[in-house]
Specification:
The chain has one domain: Nuclear Transport Factor 2, Chain: A (Roll). Helices cover 41% and strands 36% of the residues. It contains 4 helices and 6 strands; from the N terminus they run ααββααββββ. Strands 2-1-6-5-4-3 form a 6-stranded mixed β-sheet. The longest helix has 38 residues. It is globular and about 40 Å long.
């Protein structure tokens, strides 16, 4: 019985870490897709990673609630591809908080002819209907 319990614990541990690895890969893919969409000048596809809900929160110079107002802020701040530049992320930390939430810390950099800019971000991801979405973004 002891052997069975030990084997069961090992199998459970392995399956948990595999699930976490798949979830982490999915979260990283969302961010990779964001980079690609931005670098094509497509803010609408970039925004697909955000939860399309009024409860989305984006903290930057101000606090914005909701997907649509966040989109409008991006459009206003980055009206064309020159302003958008080329985006790159550097992930510093990507860790599960539970089976349905991930916390991500990273840096962002825009290479632009207008002058490079960059900063850091913290993101809270939530798994909604099997897909990972950003539900809170604090970028500086």
């Amino acid at each position: 019985m002891k052997k069975f319990f030990t084997v069961a614990c090992i199998l459970f541990s392995l399956s948990s870490s595999l699930a976490q690895s798949a979830d982490e890969a999915a979260v990283r893919k969302v961010l990779s897709n964001q980079e690609a969409a931005w670098n094509l000048g497509n803010i609408h596809d970039f925004m697909k990673s955000y939860w399309a809900d009024d409860s989305l929160v984006f903290v930057g110079k101000t606090v914005t609630y909701g997907w649509q107002p966040t989109l409008e802020n991006y459009k206003k701040r980055y009206p064309d591809t020159a302003a958008m530049g080329k985006l790159s992320f550097k992930l510093l930390e990507c860790k599960p908080l539970s089976t349905g939430y991930y916390f991500v810390v990273g840096g962002w950099h825009l290479q632009r002819t207008l002058g490079d800019v960059g900063g850091y971000f913290t993101l809270l991801f939530k798994k909604i209907k099997g897909q990972w979405f950003i539900i809170a973004d604090h970028s500086s």
